[in-house]
Design a protein that fits this description.
This protein is an alpha+beta fold and 405 residues long. Strands 1, 2, 9, 10, 11, 12, 20 and 21 form an 8-stranded mixed sheet that branches. Strands 13, 15, 16, 17, 18 and 19 form a 6-stranded antiparallel sheet that branches. Strands 6-7-5-14 form a 4-stranded mixed sheet. The chain is globular. It starts with a strand and ends in a 10-residue tail after the last helix.
Length: 405
């Protein structure tokens, strides 16, 4: 019998474990994951950006948790000697039509408490970043880079050092409430726990349905594919370089991202994956693909965004099309500057009418919290999300069990 079981050893799951230990240092806490390592999926396949919170509507959950999580993440990295670097970010308007969107982002950043934001003309920007295109830019000094696999490994070390138990190669197959505890069926046998927290990422809706509850959204997997710049081209990129995002589409568009190990990634696009863990276009899970295609929300979204989807798909199969999307940000790039890179899969929460949910979702009942949606900037905000999950658990009755205030 454990006091708490957490499903998912990504950044959010292990950050939640740390925050719960802070509140209940005497509890027995177990984290399980079906993979053979921590950060095996979304956390370990993202681009390593430390997000500042500049994009998000002021007062919203994402803005609040990103700003809180940003400070907690940097403090954690310094305490645990995890390398990171604040490179700063240029958000670039490449034409006149994008200027109102860039100004709106500037206003949001100010409202979210970011200091040092600078509006720059194209000439002013190129004085700092000579190879960047565009007619104007917003400079965001808080943005940076880190290896989230290293962050999550450090989370795991802190968690186990404080008495927590991490059990990998353990898949949750089902669970049910039995009196004052949960019986959790796993690939390694049954586990009993007083409290259950599911931080399943790409599997979050499936974990929710195991309790007989139908979540209001379904997770659709979208693969983001990257190229890497050659060393010669990478030397021209010292900062994060982002476009002004399309407000109708919850992706930030292809961008140029230095990594903590000295590479520069270009991308990602956003194409439907044929499996929840489909990191290339050859990986197909027919059962998962059929569930996606049958879902009314997918069909509604496809009808609305088919043109956008066709553009993203073309970039997936055409290096020339991918380059074309990058040239407004860096006009000197050539096809020879791009070499195949990695890919990640984003768990996109979509409602039954095709509405794409871009905020954090928590489903709470007595003794149970399902993290139903944790989109970007979840890795940056992971410690703040972990604190929010613990507060959600309190609402379900933990206070009556003596949780410390």
């Amino acid at each position: 019998m454990y006091d708490a079981l957490i499903t998912g050893a990504g950044a959010v799951g292990l950050a939640t474990a740390i925050r719960l230990q802070e509140r209940q240092p005497d509890w027995s806490i177990l984290v399980v994951d079906k993979a053979d390592r921590v950060a095996a999926h979304q956390t370990g396949h993202n681009s390593g950006v430390i997000h500042s919170g500049v994009y998000y509507p002021p007062g919203g959950t994402r803005a609040r948790l990103c700003r809180e999580g940003y400070d907690l993440l940097l403090d954690f990295c310094e305490a645990e000697n995890v390398p990171f670097r604040l490179t700063g970010k240029f958000i670039v308007a490449t034409n006149e039509q994008e200027l109102p969107g860039l100004k709106k982002i500037h206003e949001r950043g100010i409202a979210n408490g970011l200091a040092g934001l600078q509006w720059m003309t194209g000439t002013e920007m190129r004085a700092q970043s000579p190879h960047t295109g565009g007619i104007a830019a917003l400079w965001v000094p808080q943005a940076g880079i880190v290896d989230y696999k290293a962050v999550t490994r450090a989370y795991a070390e802190v968690f186990t050092r404080s008495g927590g138990v991490l059990q990998l190669n353990t898949e949750v197959l089902g669970y049910q409430r039995e009196g004052e505890s949960f019986e959790v069926q796993t690939s390694k046998g049954e586990i009993r726990t007083r409290y259950l927290i599911n931080c399943g990422g790409l599997q979050s809706d499936l974990l929710t349905t195991m309790n007989g509850r139908k979540p209001p959204v379904q997770i659709l997997p979208f693969r983001g594919e990257y190229y890497e710049l050659t060393s010669e081209a990478a030397a021209k990129v010292q900062h994060l370089i982002y476009p002004v995002p399309d407000p109708a589409f919850p992706f930030l568009g292809v961008h140029l991202t230095p990594t903590i190990d000295g590479r520069v990634e270009a991308g990602p696009n956003a194409v439907l994956a044929f499996a929840r863990e489909g990191y290339d276009n050859r990986t197909v899970n027919l059962r998962e693909l059929a569930a996606t295609v049958r879902y009314s929300g997918f069909r509604a979204m496809a009808r609305q965004y088919w043109r956008k989807g066709a553009t993203e798909l073309r970039r997936s199969f055409s290096k020339q099309a991918f380059l074309k999307s990058l040239l407004p940000l860096m006009p000197t790039l050539t096809l020879d500057d791009l070499r195949p890179g990695g890919a990640g899969v984003r768990a996109m929460a979509v409602g039954p009418k095709g509405e794409m949910i871009d905020d954090f979702l928590f489903y709470t009942e007595d003794g149970l919290v399902n993290v139903g949606n944790a989109p970007s900037p979840a890795a940056t905000a992971s410690l703040a999300i972990g604190g929010a999950v613990v507060r959600e658990l309190e609402k379900g009755g933990m206070k009556e069990c003596g949780i410390r205030e």
